[in-house]
Amino acid sequence: MKRVDWRWVLTGGALVLALSAPLLLSGYPYWLHVAIVAYFYAILASSWSLLAGYAGQFSFAHMAFMAIGAYGSGLMGKYWGTTPLTGIVLSTLLAGLVGLVIGVLCLRLKGAYLALFTIAFSEVLRLTLNAELDITGGPNGLDLAPLLNTTSRVPYYYLMLALLLASLGFMYWLAGSRFGLFFRSIREDEEAAAAMGVHIVRYKVAAFVITAMIAGLAGGVEAHYIGLITPNILILGQMSIVIAMAVIGGIESLIGAAIGAILIQFSLELLRELGNWRLVAFGLLLMLTLRFARNGLIYPLIERLVLYQARRAVIEGREQKAKQVGEGA
Amino acid sequence: MVEINLSFLLRLLADGLLIGFIYALMAMGLTLIFSVLRVVSFAHGEHYMIGGFAAYYLLETFTGLHPLVAILLAGSVTFAIGAVFERIFLRPLAEEKVERPGEYAILVTFGLGFFLQYLTLALIGPHPKKAARYFDLPAFELGPIKATAATLKLGTIPLSATRLTAAVIAVVLMLIMLYLIHHTWLGRGLRAVSQDKQAAAVVGINPLRMSTLAFGMGTMLAGMSGAALVPAFAWVPAVGAPAAVKSYVIIVLGGMGSIPGAMLGGLIIGVVEALGTGLLPDPNRAFAYRDAYGMLIFALVLLLRPRGLFGRQE
Amino acid sequence: MHRKQLLALVAMAVFLMLLAACAQQAGTPQVVRETVVVTQEIEKVVTQVVEVTKEVERVVEVTPVAGRCAPTDPDEVDKILIGATGPLSAPGSVVGGLVMQWSLNIAVKHINEAGGVLGKPVDLIFYDTEGLPERGTAVAERLITQDCVVGIVGEYHSAVGLTMMEVAHKYRVPVVFAETWNDKITGSQYDEIFRIAPTSSMVAEADANYIQDLGAEFVVIVAENSDYGVPASEATKERLAQRGIDSEIFLAEIGTQDWSPIIARIQALDRTPDVVLTLVTGEASYNFEQQAAEAGLMPTEETVCIANQVAINSEEFWQNVPDGNYCVFRKVGLVPALANDVTRKFEAEYRQQFNRFPESYALEAYDSLLIMADAINRAGSLDPDAIIDALEETDMIGAQGRYYFPYGRKNPVPPDEPEWMWHQWPDPAVLFLQYFEKGQSADEAAVVWPEKYQTHGTFLIPYGTTP
Fold it and tell me: Hey, which chains touch C, using 3+ CB pairs under 8 Å?
């Protein structure tokens, strides 16, 4: 008799839940909106964890790439009359290009230097978007055309869900491929990796380009969904929320970061009445997680489940073997 | 149109230097932390903010308290916060028990900053506070030099009394710090640990204690800069972020871990900002991009000379 | 490595410049045109997918006809739910939001003490909009579709109000905006949108009139780079120009602390301004005013200081701007001398918390709820059309005086009136007050404009004198 594999049951359950959410939330369009935004943050947090957790590039410019996706598409629509889809495609490429430049510039920078440089980049971008009123609309923000010809939230919900699943799938494939291996070897010991023939430059830059494009894509879609983008999305506080989501979910796990993001987005929304105290609690949780649960709070749960399954498989294998041996005798 | 003449340039220069001394004091704390712990504290701005509030509330509660005493007490408050935080959250780092310590340090100090800022906001609210002027200038007139309680006027250049006071306090504190670091047992201990931890331990210096002390002293300097400036700026919980970003720029420019670098870097950034804002032709852009001038220098230094002006080659 | 990085930098700069150049010419580059062709194909597919989803939705009846969930029959509810918003966290103006929340709670108490609405108690649901337009959308949606409110009141930031009004319009829920000044809000002429705050144009007009009465020839406007500062400074500059008065605008980032370089620039101008007008909010305005005072820019015998309206919080003002004596500031709303019974009742309660005469946005927040409650009472129903009709016929005394909305569905805005007069209370008082004694409370400050309210018979108490 074949045992139930709980991993697949849980994954399947989560998928069914996610797919049927519009039905379950049909009377609550607001929570559907929260779910869309939560998926958006999940894409950002998981792609950031690919860059930071897997490739060890501690960038604070992730929201900046997101904003390039959003503003790029908005500005192209405003000045060139492109449709939202064209805008998103082009601005995703643009985010990748900027990611390439930043990646190349950051090659020699490590740890705190890299963090500081990317903060500077992000801040200069924010100041520019604020200051160039005539082009970007400044602090009033930039209006964007809706991506889909519908007033309903449901298509957007599925679009963002598909985007999340696709980017998670792509990143898992990447992490499992040679790329992922090299990312990790660079993170653990750059010199050793280089000595073993890993082309460090190429992979470091690739990590930047790929994650920048994912962030840019998510930013473009989100901005066309909301219909407005302001430079406030680039304040350091926003970036710290994405980082906290990834850390609490599990910085070295893509799915952990994504689930962390979704849970945190929903709990921030549920606890809105608490005002600033919820952010106080959030900051404390971030510090304690870092100190006492380096792998985050979500990832260890997943890991335990996987380990449990593996152990079960081993035990079953042994039992089977024992049985066969017994039968053979 | 703005007429660019010598007195205008001198005025920008004076403004820049005055604010530069205060930047330098704050950056000195950051660089001290880095030199011993190899950590950039991303909560530096919040210690500055708390120092300011501590001084304000001390002066409010204990009327008649001397401002200098309030500054020292505010420094002790942030010293305590810094030392306790180091003991709980950064100790594993000093014991080298953490994987990838650089990233851990960035995140955990970042978390501290986030926590402190929102805690202050939740506790005392968003209303701006400002301490009364610490010292009134004696009114006098001596040729082109004129003084009122609030302003010292050198010809056409007005210098604010509160900033002048803060700059003087900054200079004095920096001199005291230099003395401590170069002429006392404590300073020798800190320098020894910053150069070689193992060797320091061999000669009987406890590197763990030095880490706690260095972090506490670094946050104390940030707190004291805040306390010195709370009569100059309207103080709100978000006041720390821009100041912290300046400190980052300065220590990168001066060389991470270099104390003379932080001092010179502070002055350079102060002057560059003042000149940039004063001289760029379009006044609106000039001001909107103010924080970008420092950032630009910062990016160039990182790319072209990452060890900064005085940094050690690593 | 050095060369590579420099090359990359140069490449990025060139690219950005090209992008900027293209944007300026508004021409469409080749690559864009090609992508358009490809994406048009994709779009066709996407459109079909959307159509299919819509079809599925229709079949499954996922989305009810409207997301608005408030019942129209008052008998179905045991309390009348009204939504309210304001900024309670950064980057919003937290001070304004807190005061508004407090004032709204006082209004709830007073309404319920007087027997509630339609014989039922009023309950207020207040949400933080953080000053972010996208939060405005989300929060309005939540209030309407989740909490089932029958109407919305309050809000401080125009940018937020602009997005909220779209949601309210979509679901047909009446809104009385308390402190959003942007012309476009009532300019939208949506049935659902009412406003009791002055519009930016009304305020700019008042500023220009006062400055003209001061006899100024050259004005410096210091404004924040925001949805408030930019349009306000431009509107004022335009109106000053119509009156033959020169002006120059200096913009700064929101939350600026150190103003010394900009003050140096103003003082290096080839002429001394007669008036410096501060269109900067929050603590940044205090920083500017104090630093300008220390540098001898204003207030002086030559230059009149017009501080930002937040100067009305006199305790805060004197703490943060100790050298700001003789500053003038604009006050929207009442002076204590014009208070009526409603004002006094509110003031008594307000003083227990803040110990000062309520600011305009406190009065407006309080009144916005009174107006909504009054309209629901007269409508006798929770039906949005009935409430909107009742709101259009408003004629009641609030804390700021008599409220009425001259133009609306029954009486369209005539062509010679600006379109933002739609559902707009035309009489918000705009006054100018002047401190003339250090540490003075706002209640003791002199009213210097308009002439009919003057307490000291002058447009300006000259610098350094005692009236």
Answer: A, B
A176: which residues sit within 8 A by CB, 6+ positions away? none
Give me the DSSP letters along chain B.
-B---HHHHHHHHHHHHHHHHHHHHHHHHHHHHHHHH----TTHHHHHHHHHHHHHHHHHHSTT--HHHHHHHHHHHHHHHHHHHIIIIIHHHHTT-SSSHHHHHHHHHHHHHHHHHHHHHHHH-S--B-PPPS-PPPPEEETTEEE-SSEEEETTEEEEHHHHHHHHHHHHHHHHHHHHHHHSHHHHHHHHHHH-HHHHHHTT--HHHHHHHHHHHHHHHHHHHHHHHTTTS-B-GGGHHHHHHHHHHHHHHH-TT-HHHHHHHHHHHHHHHHHHHHHSSSHHHHHHTHHHHHHHHHHHHHHH-TTTTTPPP-
Quick one: C194 and C227 in the same domain? no
C89/A76 CB distance under 8 A: no
Whether C158 and C257 share a structural domain: no
B55-108 pLDDT tens trace = 999 999 998 899 999 999 999 999 999 999 999 999 888 888 887 787 888 889
Cα separation, B262 vs A253, whole angstroms: 39
Judge whether C371 lies within some domain: yes
Residue with tokens 């809105």: A272
User: How many domains, in total, are found in chain B?
Assistant: 1
Q: Tell me, what CATH number does C134's domain have?
A: 3.40.50.2300
Q: What tens digit of pLDDT does each residue of C25-70 get?
A: 445 667 667 777 777 777 777 777 767 766 665 655 544 445 778 8
Q: Does C39 touch chain B (CB under 8 A)?
A: no
Judge if C412 and C436 occupy the same domain.
no
Q: Give the pLDDT confidence of C275-307 residue by residue, as tens digits.
A: 999 999 888 999 999 999 999 999 999 999 999
The reply to whether C301 and C179 lie within a common domain is no
Q: What is the pLDDT of residues C131-143, one digit of tens each?
A: 888 788 889 988 9
Question: Into how many domains does chain C fold?
Answer: 2
Structural domain that includes position C104: 74-199+341-421
CATH class of this structure's domain A6-328: mainly alpha
Give the pLDDT of residue C443: 82
pLDDT digits (tens, 9 = 90+) for A176-193: 887 777 777 777 777 777
pLDDT of the residue at A4: 65
Q: Domain check: are C81 and C172 in the same one? A: yes
* Chains touching chain A, criterion 3+ CB pairs below 8 Å: B, C
| CATH number, residue B121 | 1.10.3470
C181 in the same domain as C115: yes
E strand intervals along chain A? 142-143, 228-229
Q: How far apart are CA B263 and CA B28, in angstroms?
A: 7
C20, part of any domain: no
CB contact under 8 A, A152 and C134: no
Which residue range forms the structural domain that includes residue B67? 6-304
CB contact (8 A) between residue A287 and residue B119: no
Contact state of A26 with C46 under an 8 Å Cβ cutoff: no
Report how many Cβ contacts below 8 Å link chain A to chain C. 141
Amino acid at position B79, single letter: F
Q: HSE on the CB side for C216, CA within 13 Å? A: 33
C409 and C288: one domain?
no
Domain membership flag for residue C171: yes
Name every chain C residue with its beta carbon within 8 A of the beta carbon of A131: 225
Does residue C9 fall inside a structural domain? no
Q: C118: exposed, middle or buried (C-beta count within 10 Å: 0-12, 13-18, 19+)? A: middle
Question: Number of Cβ pairs closer than 8 Å across B and C?
Answer: 116
C281 and C310 share a domain? yes
Q: What residue has token string 């780079």?
A: C225
Q: B233 in a domain, yes or no?
A: yes
CB contact under 8 A, B234 and C284: yes
Q: Give, as one character, the DSSP assignment of residue A30.
A: H
